[in-house]
């Protein structure tokens, strides 16, 4: 049963938040990933095929998905679900199109022009978990922003099933989202292929997408050679209720995250002791109907809790401390409290906006910072698939005026050649 904690003190909250942070590096996982990456770096395609056989249980002669396989998937997919995918893709595209930004230029003085260009990354690699499960939503959430950004090549890697295939839903989502090439590769070995390149998979500039602990660790180890989006941990939801919410709705929303993983965290903060007990009871009732009951029950028992507090400002203060991945404001006037939220990955406003809506259909991205990293990380966006370059232009006259200041600054830092590179132009101007 999920614990109910009434009016928690600072020590209790500190313990809760420390447990929410990303777990420290696991040496066994780190060493295993390091070996895998080393093999991919040294042996390339041969090592990737070997690990696919060893870890995914399938021997492949070709890693890239063919056009025939994609067309076959589109023929197999349920037409009603295909329409759902199209609706979701349209919503995601609509939201993310507002994120696209242009460069700028301005003149701070006569003869001077300063500016910044925004250019898309050339080639990105999207990792999509797979094998026994299929996550077409992850395809859409990663590939559509990259497409809007203008990336020339969008690669996708996902583990094959034991029969060597990728689910039709994944392939259909990839086609809708504009993925350029798809590869049957999973785990740390796929991250290594994206980072180092193999005979069939060219190296990419950035890797995005979620994965298990091995994928997360592989992204951590290749960062610097390539860019990554973030190191994601177990999923989280924090719900704030003023006591006017349906306990059944709140319990269902908590379970929507608890069923992800035994390490997932589901927390409710409410001003009503009565509601806390009602939610606790509803959780027990709803758990009995869940196919993933064992996972959800373990998550609630080990990582979940219901906190009873005095008022909504106290609840919001705790939320800002926790900096959750998902935050539901199940209160009567959510927009009144929105300006007070400083740290959260994605915020769901009101009693009719469950987090699951954001996972699949609403449009905002569901690739979000976890483990308290919403204090400094943002959701995946178009910005993740672009970079900026700045530029400077001075006319001859404008530079000659600035040269003495440049030289003075350089010499103060002990860099005489820097100073001379400015002054030599001024000296020549008067020869």
UniProtKB/TrEMBL annotation:
Amino-acid biosynthesis recorded as keyword: yes
One Gene Ontology term from the biological process aspect of the record: L-histidine biosynthetic process
Cellular component per GO, a single term: cytosol
Reaction it catalyzes: L-histidinol + 2 NAD(+) + H2O = L-histidine + 2 NADH + 3 H(+)
Transmembrane feature ranges: none
InterPro entries per UniProt: Ald_DH/histidinol_DH (IPR016161), Histidinol_DH_CS (IPR001692), Histidinol_DH_monofunct (IPR022695), Hstdl_DH (IPR012131)
Binding site for NAD(+): 127, 189, 212
EC class (word): oxidoreductase
NCBIfam families linked to this entry: hisD (TIGR00069)
Name under which the protein is recorded: Histidinol dehydrogenase
Organism: Suipraeoptans intestinalis
